[in-house]
């Protein structure tokens, strides 16, 4: 009984004959072939922005962050509660808009800039914001316009959660320091320190009469 030709060919073939050269680029191109291209992708994936920040912003805009409500839908059994207020389920919109702390922060921002934007959903709010493109591109520091004050804030935590701190510095149009603040924090998450720094900066500016920030 003879061996079929196709089987004989397979037996004589080398492993290298079946290896197809696959690269990350070709795999990625195959995956996104039918995906629509959004008009703001160049504002997110910019060489002036660290990759980690671009990746986070990209996932944020596409609603792909691993919030607890999404994990529950993926059959991960969690007792989903917001780590800030401890009342509502941790969803995407609650995490960035509807939580009591976040709502108070946005109210302070709206009051300071005398402008209100619809907060129906986080994605629509973020894309409608007049400062979206400016926030993405403000990577290289420059002094503000005449009569304005620029504030730069930051917050960090040693672990998640852990000991951290918030701080900010105010500069005028000649790049002279007008004021600054530092607040030590105990047992916080990094994003909480960042939000607190922004909130303190707004109150600090208002108390000192710096309404054009």
Globally, the shape reads globular
Number of domains: 2
- Oligomer kind: single chain
Main sheet overview: 3 strands, antiparallel
Number of helical regions: 10
Query: What Rg, in angstroms, do the CA atoms define?
Result: 25 Å
The parts where pLDDT drops under 50 for at least 5 residues are: 130-138
Q: In what range is the share of β-strand residues?
A: 5-15%
Distance between the first and last residues' Cα: 89 Å
> What is the spatial order of strands in the main beta sheet?
1-2-3
Order of helices and strands: HHHHHHHHHEEEH
On the 0 to 100 scale, the average pLDDT is: 76
Structural class: alpha+beta
Total strands: 3
Helix content: 40-55%
Overview of the molecule:
With 213 residues, this protein is an alpha+beta fold. Helices cover 42% and strands 14% of the residues. The chain has ten helices and three strands. The longest helix is centred in the last third of the chain and has 18 residues. The termini are far apart.
Concise summary:
The protein is 42% helix and 14% strand. The protein is an alpha+beta fold. The chain has a three-stranded antiparallel β-sheet, with helices on one face.
Any key phrases for this structure?
alpha+beta; 3-stranded antiparallel β-sheet; 213 residues; 2 domains; RNA-DNA hybrid ribonuclease activity; 10 helices; nucleic acid binding; RNase_H-like; Nucleotidyltransferase, domain 5
